[in-house]
């Protein structure tokens, strides 16, 4: 795949996940240490598919931070945008797997290193080299990482990058639902590619309808592509000129963590490879079929990063 760069900005952390469902982490017989963080997952997803990617964010100068930096490197993601905080610890999430399969998160962010990234610490040359600049919104919640987030977006935009946004709503992290909606919408009209899940669409519109009218109520003039992911049902796509659905793949899902990030990584990889997918519906549908396949494969294994597919795995799903 092409030599253009996808630069992903935001948090990387470790999820502590119990080995059984229906009990808290403290009551579980064991737990897994699962590296994650949506923007880092996207960088690794695209790198596994052959994309040139980099991660920008802050980690603690502790064993977890160095472990995460090592995972990025081992996956071929540039760490030139990583800074280490001498005082604060790497972000951690303690997960409860509820009996109904849903996950509940408790975060160590007291503050964690990712929240302490300052605008002055940004590697601006790296950000200026981005062809696509992708971000989530956890880094919008507090200063100084909010200021770093806004500056990085601005610098990437001025250098000509396509801005890609996935709100990645994790409500417990926000002071209130209202604040979450307000902050997400405060950067909404900057992004040119936006991916939301069906749940996020409901949250942001305040309506329980998942239809064209509700998706298009989020449309803005800078947007080139809006995607609504629908879990096993695939996704809906909207551009200025056309919209439609691309069906998902039937797989035996065991853990949906990272499916959306895998989908976005695949999409961005294909966009930098051929920008005309944003204007050509037939090409876009092919790309979204590929992204749906990546999302589907990611659900077939536990954890996010270990489950992100290679090109060969995607092609074998196509042959089934
Ligand atoms: P998010 O992870 O952001 O909530 P989704 O759960 O909608 O997003 O998943 C993103 C994409 O991954 C979907 O559009 C779909 O292509 C794929 N996917 C997710 N869950 C499944 C599933 N159970 N079976 C098949 N594909 C899935």
Automatic annotation (TrEMBL):
Leader sequence segment: none
SUPFAM superfamilies in the cross-refs: Ribokinase-like
EC number assigned by the record: 2.7.1.4
Domain of life: Eukaryota
Species whose genome carries this gene: Actinidia deliciosa
Record's catalysed reaction(s): D-fructose + ATP = D-fructose 6-phosphate + ADP + H(+)
GO MF annotations in UniProt: ATP binding; fructokinase activity
Domain Carbohydrate kinase PfkB intervals: 5-310
Gene3D superfamilies from the UniProt entry: 3.40.1190.20
GO cellular component: cytosol
This protein's name: fructokinase
Cited function: May play an important role in maintaining the flux of carbon towards starch formation.
Pathway membership: Glycan biosynthesis; starch biosynthesis
Family: Belongs to the carbohydrate kinase PfkB family.
CDD domains: bac_FRK (cd01167)
Keyword line: ATP-binding, Carbohydrate metabolism, Kinase, Nucleotide-binding, Transferase
Record gene name: FK4.1
PANTHER family for this protein: FRUCTOKINASE-4-RELATED (PTHR43085:SF24), HEXOKINASE FAMILY MEMBER (PTHR43085)
Single biological process term from Gene Ontology: fructose metabolic process
InterPro entries linked to this entry: Carboh/pur_kinase_PfkB_CS, PfkB_Carbo_kinase, PfkB_dom, Ribo/fructo_kinase, Ribokinase-like
